[in-house]
Every structure is written in structure tokens, then in C-alpha cells.
Amino acid sequence: MNKLAQQTDKFRRLLDEVGTEVDSLKQEIRELKRDNAKLKAKLEEEHEKQTDIFAAISESERLALRQHVQGLISKIDHHLGADS
């Protein structure tokens, strides 16, 4: 076998290896996309189960909490105003 034939043979083997690796990576990408889709669905399912903090309390509790927060803000404002 002459040198050109040897190099051609080597090139084809290397090209086959690259093709095999590319196919393997494509398969891995498909599997990762499936896993990602499953995780996104699970995340969406969990997100739908959640409620915000105010949806879980009654209107009167909400009003009391608002007044409490406003009172704290007033105290902070007063404290900051006294320091300046």
C-alpha cells in the first residue's frame, strides 16, 4: 500500500469515528431534551400548586397585616427622622 492509500484509509477511519461521536452526541441531546421537558412539566405542576401568601389569608387578616406593616414603616420613618 502506498502512502496516499494509507492516509486515505486513516482519514476514513477518523471520519467514521467523528460520525459515530456526532451520532452519540445527538442521541445524548435528545435524551437531555426529554429530561428537560419532564423537569419543566414537573416545575409547572409544582408552580400551579402554589398560592401566594395573601390568597391563603382572610380579608380581615390581610387588613391587619397591612396595618401592622404600615405601623412598622412609620416607626422606621420616625426613627430615621430622629437620627438626621
Describe it for me?
By secondary structure, the chain is mostly helical. It has two helices and no strands. It has helices spanning 3-49, 59-83. The longest helix has 47 residues, at 3-49. The radius of gyration is 33 Å and the shape is elongated.
How are the secondary structure elements laid out?
Elements: H1 3-49, H2 59-83
Overview features:
mainly alpha, 86% helix
Shape: elongated
Helix-strand pattern? HH
Question: What number is the mean pLDDT?
Answer: 89
What structural class results from the helix and strand content? Answer: mainly alpha
For the termini, the CA-CA separation is 93 Å
Q: How much of the polypeptide forms β-strand, as a percent range?
A: under 5%
The Cα radius of gyration reads 33 Å
Largest sheet: none
Count, helices: 2
Question: Can you tell me the residue ranges where pLDDT is under 50 for at least 5 consecutive residues?
Answer: none
Tell me the number of strands.
0
Kindly summarize this structure in a few lines.
This protein is an all-alpha fold. The protein contains 2 helices and no strands.
